[in-house]
Amino acid sequence: MKARIVASIVLAGALALGTAGCNLIAPQATTKHYDASDGVSVTVGKIGVRNALIISDDGVVGNLVFSVSNTDTKAHTVVIEVEGNSERFQVVAEPGITSFDGRPDSNAPVRIDELGAKPGAVIRVFFQYGTETGGEALVPILTGELNEYSTLVPTEAPSPTPSEIPTPASTTVAG
């Protein structure tokens, strides 16, 4: 009789361990960070760059679209360097979340005039502020083919309007 009780307890323990044992050795997917959208993220000090992506239909000009999460109590100037581009871009990250996507209540995206990479590629983008060690992200280049991105495609830069040259007023000389 005692053997049956011991066997039942051992069997119940083995059954409980067998049904819950996977959690002992398998990694939990909910503890892994991932980017939930098409863009990529990178954290530098108290600044988190979120969902960074470049929208370009031609691979020549692109808009770097992203949000910045600043957990500090003061604003920071974030310096951005794009692979293959000699220009350095700067944006101000206010405390809280600042978006650079040109939509209502946000800032304009960062316009890159010398992109040099076709849609479908990834390009290295470096983010840094203050004395913090910067972070690099492999940012995807997408087209505006999807409705979500159609309004983010760079438009032509406004050409400088020539200043009007005043024409001399004609005067009549009485004679």
Q: Your description of this structure?
A:
With 175 residues, the chain is an alpha+beta fold. The chain has a domain at 32-150: Immunoglobulin-like (Sandwich). Helix content is 15%, strand content 34%. Strands 1, 2, 3, 4, 5, 6, 7, 8 and 9 form a 9-stranded mixed beta sheet that branches. It is elongated and about 90 Å long. It starts with a helix and ends in a 25-residue tail after the last helix.
Short description:
This protein is of the alpha+beta class and 175 residues long. It is 15% helix and 34% strand. The radius of gyration is 28 Å and the shape is elongated.
Q: Work out the helix count.
A: 3
Quaternary assembly: single chain
Q: Assign the CATH architecture of the domain at 32-150.
A: Sandwich
Please provide the count of β strands: 9
The poorly predicted ranges are none
Q: Secondary-structure element sequence?
A: HHEEEEEEEEEH
Note the main attributes of this structure.
about 180 residues; Immunoglobulin-like; nine-stranded mixed sheet; 3 helices
Please give the structural blueprint.
Layout: H1 2-20, H2 22-25, E1 40-44, E2 47-55, E3 62-70, E4 76-82, E5 88-93, E6 96-100, E7 110-112, E8 122-129, E9 135-142, H3 147-150
Parallel strand pairs: 2-9
Antiparallel strand pairs: 1-2, 2-3, 3-6, 3-7, 4-5, 4-8, 8-9
